[in-house]
Q: What sequence folds into this?
């Protein structure tokens, strides 16, 4: 039973437009959510996170929204840039600290 | 240089052989993790360690052994490699920040691509 799901394997957007990456979870014990970005032949790098007590966290062009009732979070990138093309992983933590990852969404930003 | 390094970057081994993947971090982070990434499966936790001499199983531990005699090193050993263990392996570290836990994210190494033939 996959507890963190990213249902869209890929997403393609035009440069300058908004990218919206989605993530759903099933475990109500998750209390912190994170997004990582991964380029080919590199390890994932931490991008942005949000606590379960908040519904929005913003960092520059990146904003994460959390809807606890729907067990859904999303990452918005505005404006999208070609350098944002990467695989994005959603992850969720319980109080124990271990992260559970989704399968990732490959974002392609076209010039 | 400060960071987390994995070695080797690429490894080809034969079925049944023992192989060890190395992971070294320079921050003295208390927590270290091993994940594997397979096509269509994202990152799955193999083993993790909360401190030297403390290790615990993750989601997919079968066929793997870990040890952590020093805080900075966390080697992963495949005792008898199988084709199903062909994967990209990522090591990560994190500091425990009390009730904030690991919520500032893990720091990952660049990965080891292992092929078992």
A:
């Amino acid at each position: 039973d996959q507890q963190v799901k990213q249902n869209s394997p890929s997403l393609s957007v035009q440069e300058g437009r908004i990218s919206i990456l989605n993530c759903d979870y099933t475990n109500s014990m998750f209390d912190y959510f994170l997004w990582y970005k991964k380029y080919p032949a590199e390890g994932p790098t931490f991008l942005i996170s949000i606590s379960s007590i908040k519904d929005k966290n913003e960092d520059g062009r990146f904003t994460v929204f959390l809807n606890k009732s729907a067990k859904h979070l999303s990452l918005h990138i505005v404006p999208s840039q070609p350098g944002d093309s990467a695989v994005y992983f959603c992850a969720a933590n319980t109080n124990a600290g271990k992260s559970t990852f989704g399968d990732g969404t490959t974002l392609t930003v076209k010039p | 240089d400060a960071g987390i390094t994995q070695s080797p970057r690429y490894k080809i081994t034969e079925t049944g052989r023992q192989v060890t993947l190395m992971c070294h971090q320079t921050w003295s982070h208390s927590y270290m993790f091993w994940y594997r990434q397979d096509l269509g499966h994202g990152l799955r936790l193999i083993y993790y360690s909360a401190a030297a001499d403390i290790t615990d199983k993750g989601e997919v531990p079968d066929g793997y052994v870990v040890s952590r005699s020093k805080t900075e090193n966390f080697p992963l050993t495949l005792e008898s490699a199988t084709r199903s263990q062909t994967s990209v392996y990522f090591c990560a570290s994190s500091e425990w920040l009390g009730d904030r836990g690991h919520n500032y994210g893990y720091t990952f190494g660049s990965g080891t691509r292992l092929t078992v033939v």
